[in-house]
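Format notes (please read before filing issues)

Several people have asked whether sequences and C-alpha cells are stored in separate files. They are not. Every record keeps both together, in the order shown below: the sequence lines, then the C-alpha cell lines. Line labels are part of the format and must not be stripped during preprocessing.
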Amino acid sequence: MINFLLPFVLATAFFQSIEIPQPGDIVLFLGDSNTFAGHFIADIDTYLTLSNSGKKNTTLLNLGLPSETISGLSEKDHPYPRPDVHERLDRALKAIKPNHVIIGYGMNDGIYSPFDESRFKKYQDGYQDVIKKCQASGAKITLLTPDPFEPIPINAKLLPLGKPDYSYKNPYEKYDSVLEKYAGWLVTLKTNQIAVADAHSSIHAFLSKRRKTDSNFIFSADGIHPNTSGHWLVAESILNSWKAQPAQALVIDAKELPLKIDLTGKLPFAQDLNWDKGIQEDFQNKWGRQTLVIKGLKDGQYKLSSAKMDLGHFTNLDLDKGLDLFQLKNLESNLLAKELRKLCTERTKVLGLAWLDEIGHKRPDTPKGKSLVEAKKMYEENSSRILDILATKVEITLTKEP
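Then the structure lines:
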C-alpha cells in the first residue's frame, strides 16, 4: 500500500509566506455587512482546514457588522448613526487576542456619494488608526479592498452628479469610481508586514470577462452585497495575498499491481454548488482539482475501484497524463469533502455571531447568536466531526483489465 505523508492539498510553498495563518492561530475578520455575510470566511476556513489536515485547528472569527464604517461617517437618511469599528475595536482585540486581523471596509465609507476629499481623509485616518492598534496587539494584518458597487440591478434608484442627498437607498450612479479610489489607496499600503487582498480588482476582472457574453451579468442583486459566487472571489483574493497554493498532483510510480493508494485525509477542496457555473469551472481548474498521476504502466486498460465499487476505466495514457479524482462521483473522499465544507460553514457562522454579541456593538436589529458557551460547544462538535472525516479510511485500487 502507498501511504502519502504530506497532506494532498498542501504544497510546501504554502508555508513560505509569513501572512498565512498557521494551525492554532486565531484569525479575526472585521468589516461591514459583506464580511458579516461570511461566505468567503467559510471558504477560507475550508481551505485552511484541509491544509492543516488533522493538525491543531485555525480558528476564524467573523466580527463583521452590517452598516459599519471605519471612517465614522453616516448619511442623513440612514435610520440610525452607522456604527464605527473604533467603538468596539479595543474590546475585540483584548478579548480575542488574534494572531491575524483581516480588515475590510469601504462600501459604506463613501456614503454612496461622489468622491469627496474630506470623506476620503476620514477613511484613510480610520484605517491607519485600526492598523496601528492591530499591529500594537501583535497581530499580522491583511487589508481587504471593498467589493465593487454594481449599478445594473438598481438603475432606477441611482442619482446623477449634483444631487444634494445620496444614501444607500439612492446611491450616486458612478459610486464604484469612488470605491476604486479607496481600493487603489489600500493597495499602496502593502508592505512586508501588511498583506493586501484586492477583491475589488478581482471581481471586476471576472465581471468584465462575463459581460462580454452577458452584458447584464451581476454578482449583487442590490448593487452592494455580492452573492456566494462573488464571495469566492473575495476568498481567493485573500488566499492569493497569502501566497496560498492549490493542490499539487499526486504522482505514483506503479511498481506492481494491484496498486493500493491510501487517500485518507487527502480530500479535495470542494466547491459550493450554488456558485455561478463560470466560477465553478475556474475554481475547479485551479483549486478543486485533485490530480492523480500514475507512471510506469504498460499499455492497456485499467480499472480504479474503491470498496468493491467501480470508479472508472482508463488507459495507461490517461493515468500518465493525470486524472482528476474529483470527477469520480462515487469516490468517498469527494463526498467527505462536501460534508467538511458544510461543517466549516456552520461553525464559522455560529461562533462569529456569538463573539459579535459577546464583544458588543451599537447597531440595532442585528441578528442574535447563541451564547458563547453554546457556540463554542457547537464549534468543538463540528471540529471533532471534521477530524473524524479527515481520519476516515479512503483507499482506491488500480488493477489491469484483461
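For reference, the curators noted about this record: DSSP finds eleven helices and 13 strands in the chain. The first strand starts at residue 2 and ends at 3.
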